[in-house]
Design brief:
The protein is of the alpha/beta class. 43% of the residues lie in helices and 17% in strands. Helix 4 links the parallel strand 4 and strand 5.
């Protein structure tokens, strides 16, 4: 395999925004490692779709809430890189995997809080740390945040708090990894029609209508509004963008 095709690791790549991102990157000539927690069939389907686009891909199991499993995941990734690409490093990390929670501040339990923190904050921090030795110098990292760090909606305090932490982490990573030529940015989607958080934005007609009415472009976002935008951010055309928060919300709450 030639080295002209880059390799991107997309966590939570079996569905939703992760799937859209992996396929958009593949259309631009970037191969993929997609991770999944339970949906192995969906992850294998993404692999097949990448291959149909002329690329190579593998699917690996990963629970981003379980930090203790990260060394074993790094070993599995190393084996996959060697087996599929005859390489020992990859180029792009997209920290996309996540879970949703909608609960009033007063009703948010410690268990809910801890689960969100494990997936969205602690997991991203230590997974990135574990994989840094396997990243190429000059590589790229994109951390997924949310429009909810800019505007506030009741019921999302804990979730948005974690994403706010990710935005701070992004700036620190950009500063500390600059010596390796690694650019790090935050990408913050607005409300998107996926099964995230039980599919409320997609399936609740009243909520969907409300969000569309508060969005300048007059509709709720779709996964394919996001994946190609992330792929564009990761292109060489945007190599000088670093340490930034980029929102793709169609103009929510302007």
């Amino acid at each position: 395999m030639t080295r002209d095709r880059k390799i991107a690791l997309v966590t939570g790549g079996s569905r939703g925004l992760g799937r859209s991102t992996a396929l958009a990157l593949a259309r631009g000539g970037t191969d993929a490692v997609v991770t999944y927690r339970r949906q192995d069939d969906a992850a294998r389907q993404v692999v097949r779709e990448v291959e149909e686009l002329g690329g190579r891909a593998v699917a690996l199991a990963l629970d981003t809430a379980e930090v203790s499993t990260f060394p074993a995941f790094a070993e599995a990734l190393s084996a996959a890189l060697a087996r599929t690409w005859s390489r020992d490093r990859f180029d792009i990390l997209v920290n996309n995997a996540g879970i949703g929670l909608h609960a009033p501040f007063a009703a948010t339990s410690e268990a809910d809080f801890d689960q969100l923190m494990s997936v969205h904050l602690k997991g991203v921090f230590f997974l990135t740390q574990a994989l840094l030795p396997m990243m190429e110098d000059g590589g790229r990292i994109v951390n997924l945040s949310s429009g909810l760090t800019r505007f506030s909606l009741p019921g999302y305090a804990a979730y948005a708090m974690m994403k706010g932490g990710i935005e701070v982490l992004t700036r620190y990573l950009a500063k500390e990894l600059g010596s390796r030529g690694i650019a790090v940015n935050t990408f913050a989607p607005g409300a998107i029609e996926t099964d995230f958080g039980g599919g409320a934005v997609r399936d609740n007609a009243g909520l969907n209508k409300m969000i569309a009415g508060q969005t300048a472009l007059g509709r709720v976002g779709l996964p394919d509004d996001i994946g190609p935008a992330i792929a564009s951010l990761l292109s060489q055309d945007n190599r000088w963008i670093n340490g930034q928060r980029i929102e793709a919300s169609g103009g929510m709450f302007l």
